[in-house]
Amino acid sequence: MSELALPMVVPEPGLPSRVTIYEVGARDGLQNEQSLVPTAVKAEFVRRLLAAGLPVVEATSFVHPKWVPQLADAADLMTGLLADLGDRARALPVLVPNERGLDRALELGLRHVAVFASATETFAARNLNRTLATQFEMFEPTITRALAAGMHVRGYVSMCFGDPWEGPVAVDQVVGVGKRLLDLGCAQLSLGDTIGVATAGHVRALVEAFAAAGVDRSRLALHFHDTYGQALTNVHAGLQAGVTTYDASAGGLGGCPYARSATGNLATEDLVWFLDGLGIEHGVDLRTVVDTSTWMAGHLGRPSPSAVVRALAQSPA
Ligand code: HMG
Ligand code: MG
User: Fold this and answer.
1) Which residue ranges form the domains of the chain, and what is each CATH number?
2) Closest ligand to 97 CA?
3) Which of 156, 178, 189, 209 to pair with 113, CA 20 to 30 A apart?
């Protein structure tokens, strides 16, 4: 019996013809790992993801090392990648919550940073040690200085659909937080379903609410976690609503250390397979990502939760 190693391509009218996959495996994927992954393994992970054709590879976080011990080696990782990849490494996005994080990124000459806001009061306290209101006091000088230095700034909003402490999150509340980040100068907004509770109608409603508030859909990205198996359905809803950037994590690694029940991110391989089936261009080589995730699973000591990785890992190249 011959093995089907690629999906049938049947385009669906009305969907975008091309999307950007924003790879977060080296940051969101690894930040929750309990055992420390050696810096050299992280560097190799980033290099392999770039070699797979992923157009954006978020590399690490310049957060407080006590808050995320796994990423305490952020400066060492980036120093090594800069020596190795030069300008290519300078363009890798890194998370910076505040001016201290920005300073660390500036010292290395990095060009792309991302701030991360919360749509809810409880998560702002738990993840940032701030309130919903005072988180912006941290972001404003950070974004202003980053832009003055010629950097590109992305803004994340977490808990856009539901929050483990507060329950469902009102669409207007998310639009309010997102608009503030855009007004402060973020070029792109990534709307995070941090705990994976989004459903398709909710995704459409949120994107439409941003559009109604005057935000062009081209400035939105969607960031799904697959806790309830809804991530691809939610991507489909996002595509129907005209969003063309999707965050994903190789092998489905991930979770947020400060959000109870935040399990794995949407796996890059699952997203690639899904887009391939629709004939939507993305420029990523599926086999290389699968090999990378299989290699990383070996380092982490457990198999990838991605259905596509499991199906393809053993299949002939
Ligand atoms: P804080 O304790 O309020 O910080 O934490 P502070 O401003 O009061 O400073 C206290 C000390 O920390 C000072 O040192 C600072 O210099 C130092 P001292 O003077 O006492 O010696 N400090 C730092 N050191 C290194 N790097 C820094 C830094 N900032 C301060 N950047 C803070 C506030 C934001 C720093 C802390 O809460 C933090 O680091 N939080 C990060 C939490 C995190 O990384 N969460 C995961 C990422 S978010 C996510 O995963 C969701 C996402 O994927 C989307 C989704 O799924 O929804 C993006
Ligand atoms: Mg996340």
Assistant:
1) 3-312 (3.20.20.70)
2) 1
3) 209
